[in-house]
Amino acid sequence: MNRIKEVKALENYQILVTFDNGEKRIKDMKPYLEKGVFKKLKDQEFFKSVKVAYGTVTWGENIDLCADSIYETSSIYNG
Predict the structure, then answer these.
(1) How do the domains of the chain map onto residue ranges?
(2) Do residues 63 and 41 lie in contact, with contact meaning Cβ atoms separated by under 8 Å?
(3) pLDDT digit string (tens) for 38-58?
(4) Cα→Cα distances 30→20, 21, 39, 59, 77, Å
(5) What pLDDT is attached to residue 79?
(6) What is the mean pLDDT of residues 12-40?
(7) In what order do the strands lie in the sheet with 24-28?
(8) Which fold has domain 4-76?
(9) Distance in angstroms (rounded) separating the CA atoms of residues 40 and 65
(10) Given phi > 0 = left and psi -120 to 50 = alpha, else beta, which region is 13?
(11) b or e along 23-48 (b: 16 or more beta carbons within 10 Å of the residue's beta carbon)?
(12) SS (H, E, C) the chain
């Protein structure tokens, strides 16, 4: 299992996630923006507040994504 080391908010509701194996992946959050608590991510300032906490990507106390989910549903970053 890969663990998340770093996360950065990008343009167009994407995040760049760096895993402990050195791999970087892009996760597109646009499909989540109309679902439940994820609707809060439409606020650009809130979206940019993304951070890593306890091995997950999180926004505040109520929105998070686990490393496995991100890894399985993201694209390899080639930048």
Answers:
(1) 4-76
(2) yes
(3) 999 999 999 999 999 988 999
(4) 25, 26, 10, 15, 17
(5) 82
(6) 97
(7) 4-10, 14-19, 24-28, 75-76
(8) NE0471 N-terminal domain-like (3.30.2020)
(9) 14
(10) left
(11) ebbbbebeebeeeeebeebeeeeebe
(12) CCCEEEEEEECCCEEEEEECCCCEEEEECHHHCCCHHHHHHHCHHHHCCCEEECCEEEECCCEEEEHHHHHHCCEECCC
Question: Do 70 and 19 touch, CB atoms closer than 8 A?
Answer: no
pTM listed for this prediction: 0.94
Asked if residues 51 and 65 have their Cβ atoms less than 8 Å apart, the reply is no
Torsion of Cα atoms, 4 then 8 then 9 then 12, to 10°: -90
Residue with tokens 């930048």: 79
